[in-house]
Amino acid sequence: MNTVMQERSRIHAIHPIVNAFRLDWQRLNSSGKASMAVYLVMLPALALLFGLLSESGGSSDMMMPVLGGMASGVFAMLPVYTFVYESQGMSRWMNGVIPVRRGHQVSGRYLVVLSVGLLLAVELTVSALVMAVTADAGAWRAAMEGYAANIAVIPVIYLLIESVLCPLLYRMPLQKAMLVLFGVAAALFGIGWITVELCSDVLSVTQMAVVLGALETLAKLEAGSLALIAAVVDVVALGVSYACSLRIYRAKEL
């Protein structure tokens, strides 16, 4: 009896989150289901085009950066659209149509972030397969290692960006959130540059060689080790982000 009651309690706890998740996906498809189909077909179609150009003698050097940049840009904005849609015309009132609490709404939104990240990884993988079929075999083999790295790195960067953006979007309008995100990125770049300059000035040549050797070792880690490190970083970032979003949204006056 206790087991049955616990199972029912678990189902009742999950069901509102699923409802919030479905509502957010309805928001993403508010302009028509064809719009989502365009997102899903766009990258493989471009991969096919680039592959054909490569086969006819075109350069394949820019294929991975272009596809990766387009993918990260398009898919990073999809979760953002749920916030924009929710804020336009006071449509956040729709949250009250389904029996969910604010915590369920935040959980559903982070499920959207994860599902879009999964779609991004699938898109990149499909694009890689399309290019493998259409591009020149020799050129593809030379570029495959770099493209495989993009498949692993781009979703990680996407999740880190969303981890910063989500609490900001719960706290402030989109324009301010994007400015803060840009400021954070610039600050991190500046801190990294300053750290490198300070280390080169303070550390001796031998000590600097040790630091560079450690960084080189980290860069040469196996794919499995890098994936594990990336997964830990994303889990920590998403956990902190979720806690911040939940606290901000519960305290926010709607």
Architecture overview:
The chain has one domain. It is 85% helix and 0% strand. The protein has helices at residues 2-28, 33-55, 63-87, 102-134, 137-171, 174-202, 205-219, 223-251. α2 (33-55) packs antiparallel against α3 and α4 (102-134) runs antiparallel to α8. The protein is globular, with a radius of gyration of 22 Å. The two termini are 40 Å apart. The model has no long low-confidence stretch (mean pLDDT 75).
Notable characteristics:
254 residues; mainly alpha; 8 helices; 85% helix; globular
Please give a quick description of this structure.
This protein is mainly α and 254 residues long. It has helices at residues 2-28, 33-55, 63-87, 102-134, 137-171, 174-202, 205-219, 223-251.
What is the number of helices? 8
Shape: globular
The N- and C-terminal alpha carbons lie at a distance of 40 Å
Number of domains: 1
Structural class: mainly alpha
Mean pLDDT: 75
pLDDT < 50 stretches: none
Rg is 22 Å
Total number of strands: 0
Tell me the fraction of residues in β-strands, as a range: under 5%
Overall helicity: over 70%
Pfam families: ABC2_membrane_5
Organism: Bifidobacterium lemurum
Protein name: ABC-2 family transporter protein
Keywords: Membrane, Transmembrane, Transmembrane helix
Question: What is the secondary structure topology, with strand pairs?
Answer:
Elements: H1 2-28, H2 33-55, H3 63-87, H4 102-134, H5 137-171, H6 174-202, H7 205-219, H8 223-251
Protein name: ABC-2 family transporter protein
InterPro entries: ABC2_memb-like
Organism: Bifidobacterium lemurum
